[in-house]
């Protein structure tokens, strides 16, 4: 998730201090970064992606970014060795964004690949041992139960270079290289992004958001019609809120249109467009 410490983890494990790391409520990883290092004599590439529920990008944009990268990797027969899913143990509760993030993650990865996932809790220095242990138990017993049943592993990350490298070394030793479900759906089956499991999840969410935004816009229109004209401050506040809801509705409709337009493009066209923008130069 956004703010879980993905870039910080990569900075620790690689020793790179020049990575842009976010220290505010807004997300910092706006594009995909690939950072290489040596671990146990082996060259390891870390792919740092924006999270779903990002502060700057919609889930549609994040999924398209990840899908483009994975499609190019599939074309080059480049497989993953594992996925580190970071969750801050300092979060006092599991939000709607967090559960939605997990659902998207499962659809993107595929059930058969969950055994290659390490569910990693971060930011243990921000909680007491008792608080952290209680939250960890809730994650395992409730929110991560299905993933753990499919042999995903739950690991604590202590925030140190040693802890990060130990986690990665174990993952490399345990896992065989694999393709994500999204890669196979788009590469082998030549499905449009909209028609993949992850894409369908996004389309369901877009439909939900569209209905919610339209309802909010209608409510704001009714409020504006019924507001007393003499209460200028109330009317101005309502207008500002109304325009904000309109912007959100337009963004959702634009994302839906983008997914539908993307469906008519072939995989070859998507990859050629990606290569022309130079995003695959790191691979």
Average pLDDT works out at 83
Quickly count the helices. 10
Number of domains: 2
Give the biggest sheet: 3 strands, parallel
In the CATH hierarchy, what is the class of the largest domain?
A: Alpha Beta
- CATH architectural designation of the largest domain: 3-Layer(aba) Sandwich
Gap from first CA to last CA:
24 Å
Order of neighbouring strands in the sheet with most strands: 3-4-5
H/E order of the elements? HEEHEHEHHEHHHHH
What percent of the residues sit in helical stretches (DSSP H or I)? 40-55%
From the helix content, strand content and strand pairing, which structural class follows?
mainly alpha
In total, the number of strands is 5
**What is the CATH topology descriptor of the largest domain?**
Rossmann fold
General shape: globular
CATH superfamily placement of the largest domain: P-loop containing nucleotide triphosphate hydrolases
Low-confidence stretches: 21-29, 279-283
Strand content: 5-15%
- What's the Cα radius of gyration? 21 Å
What is the structure about, briefly put?
With 283 residues, the protein is mainly α. The chain is 54% helix and 11% strand. It folds into 2 domains: 6-187, Rossmann fold; 193-265.
Describe this structure in words.
The strands form two sheets. A three-stranded parallel beta sheet has the order 3-4-5, with no helix packed on it. The longest helix is centred in the last third of the chain and has 31 residues, at 232-262. It is built from ten helices and five strands. Helix 1 (6-14) crosses helix 6 (161-174) and helix 3 (96-109) runs antiparallel to helix 8. It is mostly helical and 283 residues long. The chain has helices at 6-14, 59-75, 96-109, 129-143, 145-149, 161-174, 181-188, 197-226, 232-262, 267-276; strands at 33-39, 42-48, 83-88, 117-122, 153-156.
């Amino acid at each position: 998730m956004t703010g879980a410490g993905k870039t910080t983890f990569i900075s620790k494990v690689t020793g790179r201090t020049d990575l842009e790391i976010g220290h505010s409520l807004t997300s910092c990883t706006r594009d995909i970064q690939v950072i290489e290092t040596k671990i146990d004599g082996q060259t390891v590439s870390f792919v740092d992606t924006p999270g779903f529920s990002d502060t700057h990008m919609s889930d549609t944009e994040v999924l398209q970014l990840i899908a483009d990268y994975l499609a190019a990797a599939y074309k080059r027969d480049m497989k993953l060795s594992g996925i580190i899913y970071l969750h801050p143990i300092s979060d006092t509760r599991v939000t709607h964004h967090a559960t939605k993030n997990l659902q998207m993650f499962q659809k993107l990865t595929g059930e058969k690949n969950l055994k290659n996932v390490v569910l990693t809790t971060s930011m243990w220095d921000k909680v007491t041992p008792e608080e952290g242990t209680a939250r960890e138990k809730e994650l395992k017993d409730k929110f991560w139960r299905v993933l753990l049943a499919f042999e995903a592993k739950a690991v604590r990350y202590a925030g140190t270079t040693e802890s990060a490298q130990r986690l990665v070394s174990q993952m490399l030793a345990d896992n065989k290289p694999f393709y994500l479900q999204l890669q196979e759906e788009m590469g082998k089956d030549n499905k449009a992004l909209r028609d993949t499991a992850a894409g369908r999840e996004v389309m369901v969410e877009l439909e939900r958001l569209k209905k919610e935004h339209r309802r909010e816009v209608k409510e704001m229109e009714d409020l504006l019609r019924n507001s007393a004209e003499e209460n200028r401050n109330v009317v101005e506040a309502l207008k500002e809120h109304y325009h904000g809801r309109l912007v959100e509705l337009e963004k959702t409709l634009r994302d839906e249109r983008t997914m539908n337009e993307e469906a008519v493009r072939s995989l070859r066209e998507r990859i050629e467009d990606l290569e022309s923008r130079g995003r695959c130069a790191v691979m």
